[in-house]
Every structure is written in structure tokens, then in C-alpha cells.
Amino acid sequence: MSTQQLNGTTAKLLVLVTGANQGLGYYASQQLASTGKYHIFLGSRDLNKAHKAIQQLVADDSVKVSEHDLEPIQINVTSDDSIKAAAKHVADKYGYLDILMNNAGIAAQQAANADGTGPTLRELYHRHYDTNLFGAAVVTEAFLPLLKKSTTEGGKRIAFTSSALSSLEWAATLDGEMSGANYPLYRSTKTAENMVMIHYARSLEAEGFVVSASDPGYCATNLNYYHGAKDPRQGAKALVIAATGVKEQIHGRVVDDESNAEPW
């Protein structure tokens, strides 16, 4: 099926958003769908949750979206079999993908409980890297052949959801929440993810790709038990910019919701 055949005669960019049944991915999907320019695969580990998220988006009168622009897909970024199945589904149904948004991520407890129960430090690091880094890398490789088949303007895009906490410069020079003494586990996964992003930005640029990462800010989502000070709707704008923004402003960079590049 060609891009022109998708959703009738209207050319809409085909987008996959992982971890989109809640939080930043949910609102980024809403913002993309509200433009009428995109057909979004709303990715979730649980297909029922993806269906429920779409129902909620359609029922939300504050931002109008069409149910026809949202499609559920099951994808667990910690499972190679799940990733392969999702890529096969998109390949069989459409034969290409225009935009990949690697958004799925976790930020669990930073250490074992005081009484010694719970996961070990090694288990915590493995769990975080498996989702935040390995998952994003494997998903990108799995969908890269489909992204290379994109022929529509605005396609051949890969966006990663990063964080201001990934900045080595800020970790080394600032105090408070941005200090390197805070959250070494989570933030190190995002620093590593930035390196993966740069790899793809450099290696795929000659083929017309635009690759970037977003810094949505400290948003109130399930990732931090809704303790964030920023509205996730605002933070989701950074995800959209990283996926659809002007190449000269975002390519090979980590950008915020105003297209400002964050320091390394």
C-alpha cells in the first residue's frame, strides 16, 4: 500500500510511537493526530491498553482527533519477538514506515530496599538499559528497512525521547536536580541513547534521514509517579519537534519544546 492509498486519497505520514498508551507518547500521538497529517501506530506492550488509549483520545473533546488516524499495535521493546512481530505487521499491511518515535522508557527505584529486599543494583541497571537503550536500538534496527522505503516528504525520520538529565556538561557543572550526583542509573541510559541517536544521524544522513532526540522536561507522568512540575502536554511538544521539526534545528541534537539544543 502506498502513502497515497493510506486513509483514502489523502497522503498521511505513517508514524510509530512506542510506549504511547500513556504519558508523553500518548500526548505526542494526540498532537500529531490532531493535525490530520499523520496516521499513527499507537504502540503498547498491552494491546488492550492501546485500544483503550485510542478510545480516550477520540472521546477527548478538548483536542479533536479522528479514530481513523490512530491504529493500535502491540510492541514490547524488551522482547525481540514482539519487536519482530510488530515490524512484520507494519510491513505486511503498509510496506513502509515514515517516522519512528522511540519513546518507551522506564525510571524505577534507584537502589534495593533498606532491608535488602528488591532488585540488586545490577538488576536495576540491566532493567533500565534493556528498556531505555537496548529496546530503542533494536526497534530502530527492526524498522530501519521500512523507514528506508519512505518516499514522502517529511519521512525517513527517527526520534528518541531523551532527557536534560542526559547532559554530561550539566551533570558536571550544575547543582541541584541536574547534578551528576542524582539519578545516575536513569540518566546514564539517556546519555547512552544520545550516542545511539548520533550514530544514526551520521550514518543515515546521506540517505536523507533526519534523526534527533527530545528533552521533554520534568513532566508529571507515571514515569515519576506524577511528581513532575511540567504538564506532559507541553513536554510532548518536544517529542513532536524531534520527529517533525526543521532538519537544521534538530538533526543530531537533543532539543526541547522550543527547538533549543541541549548541551552534551
UniProtKB/TrEMBL annotation:
GO terms for cellular component: cytoplasm. Belongs to the short-chain dehydrogenases/reductases (SDR) family. This is Uncharacterized protein. It holds the Pfam family adh_short. InterPro entries: Fungal_SecMetab_SDRs, NAD(P)-bd_dom_sf, SDR_fam. It comes from Baudoinia panamericana (strain UAMH 10762) (Angels' share fungus). GO terms for molecular function: oxidoreductase activity. One of its GO terms (biological process) is secondary metabolic process. It comes from the Eukaryota.
